[in-house]
Design goal:
The chain is of the alpha/beta class and 502 residues long. It contains 15 helices and 20 strands.
């Protein structure tokens, strides 16, 4: 069953179930609970919040000393960058509902990505010159797609899906092939395929998974009066002042959290009857007919009726689980891909693009890949009208893995030196405040999941089903949504599954 805001009323379910499930916490030992949730990211916290509201005794175990998972506002760094999720889209129903219930304040996005200059084939190319530039070896309609848009534009062109859950239907399994094979089979030119390869792992990524994400992005755009495109995993918007067909009343999207996105999971955690237990690294989950023992590396354990593992499969595969997983769950947990994205968050001393006359952001065919210059002078409330601009280096896939093996200081020097080589006007103008790699975070081990060719058909449908007393949640188990909304969606699903088993 796919859960959405129309088919599930949280308050009604809570009121209906709370009575028979409430039990005295004073009568229970500290090491027992109805449900143990592993992971205090958005998915785990949403599941715990719902189950707690329904009267269950819930323990949340978080392996790190921090709450939030891949929501992380770096308050200890210059300009307090968002290391993970931060944008709230207009169709994020669960997120927006939670924000309203928690009384959190939102602010307009004040850092859209400024236009790109391309450094391709050893040449700096203005965006307006790309379609007719000699370096552009693509053919026909491909020539009108910018290098940044090439992958998304071509995948959208060949995307046959109409509904957000079509990707799970057997009749679409034929698209669960590599992006390279899908594009080649549709006659895409070698030059265009090479361009797509700058932002996509062509041979190791399922085309079907990217089609679903593209469809969800198009769905999101219908709710906004802004033109949107997906660049490197970020929804980039530029207001047009016109209302799109089928859009909600005019508003500026996406939005951010006042004070930083970390305020969201922290506020959710405060709604729980038991405080989140941090620095509790789970080592094993042992289940039998009566319940489950969740054992931590520090020797502590919690006995519960059910367990929700709201951690990435890249982490869950390190936890001992008995009884041993069946084939589908084993294959999904141990084999699903996880992509790396490394970022370096920067301050621009002086706007060097005013010196070389080119657009501020940079997209390249070198391992540098992208430098996003952020328009934090966009006119949003409380946005500065002067002072330094912010920028972010975005490195993906193999290049990100190699850069992430370096010490952060050395990685920062390498990135700055490379952009100065490509654009001499930038010399001495970029200061890296923070380098961040999700692959180096032991409780994430990657920026996000990435289905390999054939994996959707093999296990995407069944991998979210409970195994014995173990339920799974997290963005990697999403059905319809993406971003923060997908984490909330998955936590809601896991909570409903358990409530239906009580």
């Amino acid at each position: 069953m796919i859960i959405n805001r129309r088919s599930f009323n949280r308050s009604v379910l809570t009121a209906a179930l709370a009575g028979p499930l409430i039990r005295s916490s004073r009568a229970k030992a500290a090491d027992t609970a109805d449900v143990v949730v592993i992971g205090a990211g958005l998915s785990g916290l949403n599941a715990a919040w719902m189950l707690s509201e329904a009267g269950l005794d819930v323990v949340v175990l978080e392996g790190s000393a921090r709450i939030g998972g891949r929501v992380w506002t770096a308050h200890d760094s210059e300009n307090t960058p968002e290391l993970g999720a931060s944008q709230v889209g207009p169709s994020y129903a669960r997120v927006l509902d939670a924000i309203d219930r928690l009384g959190l304040e939102m602010v307009d996005e004040d850092r859209p990505i400024m236009p790109f200059t391309y450094h391709l084939g050893g040449q700096l190319i203005r965006a307006k010159d790309w379609a007719d530039h000699p370096v552009n070896k693509t053919v026909g309609a491909e020539r009108k797609l910018s290098p940044v848009q090439m992958g998304g534009g071509l995948i959208a062109k060949f995307n046959p899906m109409k509904e957000l859950d079509d990707w799970l239907r057997p009749d679409f399994a034929k698209y669960d092939v590599s992006v390279g094979d899908m594009l080649a089979g549709n006659g895409v030119s070698p030059a265009a395929m090479a361009m797509v390869g700058l932002t996509t792992e062509m041979r190791n990524t399922s085309a079907l998974s990217l089609m679903q994400e593209g469809l969800r992005g198009a769905f999101e755009a219908k709710f906004s009066s802004a033109q949107s495109e997906l660049i490197g995993g970020a929804l980039v918007t530029k207001s047009t002042g016109e209302k799109a067909a089928g859009a909600a009343p005019s508003a500026k999207w996406p939005k951010n959290f006042k004070g930083g996105a970390s305020a969201f999971p922290q506020a959710m955690a405060k709604q729980l009857k038991r405080p989140v237990m941090t620095s509790k690294l789970v080592a094993a989950i042992h289940m039998n007919d009566d319940g489950a023992d969740v054992r931590c590396m520090d020797g502590s354990s919690v006995r519960a009726k059910f367990v929700i593992a709201a951690v990435p499969f890249s982490v869950l595969r390190l936890i001992e689980i008995t009884p041993a997983l069946d084939g589908v769950h084993h294959d999904a947990i141990h084999n699903i891909g996880y992509a790396e994205t490394a970022r370096a968050f920067c301050t621009i001393k002086q706007p060097f693009w005013q010196q070389d006359g080119l657009d501020p952001s940079l997209f390249t065919d070198t391992p540098l890949r992208m430098l996003w210059v952020l328009d934090n002078h966009s006119g949003a409330p409380n946005a500065p009208t002067k002072g330094p601009f912010m920028a972010t280096f975005v490195i993906t896939w193999g290049a990100a893995e190699r850069v992430s093996q370096m010490a952060p200081e050395e990685a920062a020097k390498l990135l700055v030196a490379e952009v100065e080589r490509l654009r001499p006007a930038a010399k001495g103008q970029i200061v890296v405040n923070r380098f961040h790699s999700w692959a180096r975070q032991p409780l994430q081990r990657g920026c996000r999941h990435s289905f390999k060719p054939g994996q959707i058909a093999a296990f995407a449908v069944d991998m979210i089903k409970p195994w014995q007393r173990l339920h799974v949640a997290g963005e990697h188990t999403r059905r319809l949504d993406y971003g923060m909304e997908s984490a909330m969606e998955s936590g809601e699903r896991a909570a409903v599954e358990i409530l239906n088993r009580i």
